[in-house]
Design goal:
Blueprint: E1 2-13, H1 19-24, E2 26-36, H2 39-44, H3 53-65, H4 72-86, E3 92-99, E4 111-118, E5 120-128, H5 133-145, E6 150-155, E7 159-161, E8 172-181, H6 185-198, E9 213-219, H7 240-249, H8 262-273
Antiparallel strand pairs: 1-2, 2-3, 3-4, 5-8, 5-9, 6-8, 7-8
Helix pairs in contact: 3-4, 5-6, 7-8
Family: In the N-terminal section; belongs to the DHNA family.
Function: Catalyzes the conversion of 7,8-dihydroneopterin to 6-hydroxymethyl-7,8-dihydropterin.
Catalytic activity: 7,8-dihydroneopterin = 6-hydroxymethyl-7,8-dihydropterin + glycolaldehyde; 6-hydroxymethyl-7,8-dihydropterin + ATP = (7,8-dihydropterin-6-yl)methyl diphosphate + AMP + H(+)
Length: about 270
């Protein structure tokens, strides 16, 4: 991915722990590295096909001066989020906020905080088989697509499926969502749990009936294993009701662990269940 860089942008503002810093203010220096595909802009010389570094600078200045923060970490986080939300062509940004006059009573060039933030691609399994199934699926779509710090929501078609695991229950409605987010996996999972709670989700029987079930299937190609969240979802390649709608959105995608396309995994699973 190409880069558009701004180095040592000077902004006078009032961030710091001490009262004097908040009252008197001081100069901060900011480095911004934005990951952007510049090929079409380079071929056509059209600004609309790239991102104006002048607009990035104005965005940074406005964000840095609109409020006072104690920590450089907070300043950098706000800047990264502001840039990614304001400039859709930017998929990743690296921010370094430098404080040349940090009050440490020793000589140094500056203190700084550097962070890197980006958009993440997430696939979510969705299911309901209890109560007003259609209404719960509608609620899920409205709430997930309306989450802040997200973009480019897509939904596969809804399918009706037989229960999996615990079979003494009604049929499910299932689908898969795609969305891009700035949330970490843990933050995004918490948002999904809040939506499930709004639908009065109860976790009483493993694989049992539920008003609404929202599972993170994939988060980029991240591979994790802990008690709260395992990625990719460990059961996804065994479930037709996940693979069928997933392949509507992402048929040529490759499973991070199995290194096989989802369309091929789906065909193999169909063959086994015939």
């Amino acid at each position: 991915m190409d880069e558009i860089s701004v180095k040592n942008l000077e902004v006078f503002c009032h961030h710091g722990v001490y009262k004097e810093e908040n009252v008197l203010g001081q100069k901060f220096l900011v480095d911004i590295i934005s990951k952007v595909d510049t090929r079409e802009a380079g071929k056509t010389d059209e600004l609309a096909l790239s991102v104006s570094y002048g607009d990035i600078c104005r965005c940074v200045k406005k964000e840095m001066t609109k409020q006072n923060d104690k920590l450089l970490e907070r300043v950098a986080e706000r800047l990264a989020e502001c840039i990614l939300l304001q400039f859709p062509q930017i998929n990743e940004v690296e921010i370094e906020v430098k404080k040349p006059w940090a009050p440490v009573l020793m000589h140094m060039d500056y203190a700084s905080v550097k962070i890197k933030r980006s958009w993440h691609k997430v696939y979510i399994g969705v299911g309901s088989n209890l109560g007003e199934r259609e209404e719960y699926m509608k609620l899920a779509k409205e709430r997930v697509s309306g989450l802040p710090k997200t973009r480019n929501f897509k939904s596969a078609a809804i399918i009706e499926t037989e229960p999996y695991g615990y079979t003494e229950q009604g049929k499910f409605l299932n689908t898969v969502y795609y969305i891009e987010t700035l949330y970490t996996p843990e933050e995004f999972l918490d948002k999904l749990h809040q939506i499930e709670n709004e639908a009065n989700r109860k976790r009483e029987i493993h694989w049992g009936p539920r008003t609404l079930d929202l599972d993170i299937l994939l988060y980029d190609n991240l591979i994790t294993e802990d008690e709260e969240l395992t990625l990719p979802h460990p059961e996804m390649t065994k479930r037709l009701f996940v693979l069928e709608p997933l392949c509507m959105l992402y048929p040529r995608g490759i499973h991070p662990l199995e290194r096989r396309r989802y369309a091929d995994i789906l065909e193999d699973l169909k063959g086994k269940e015939q």
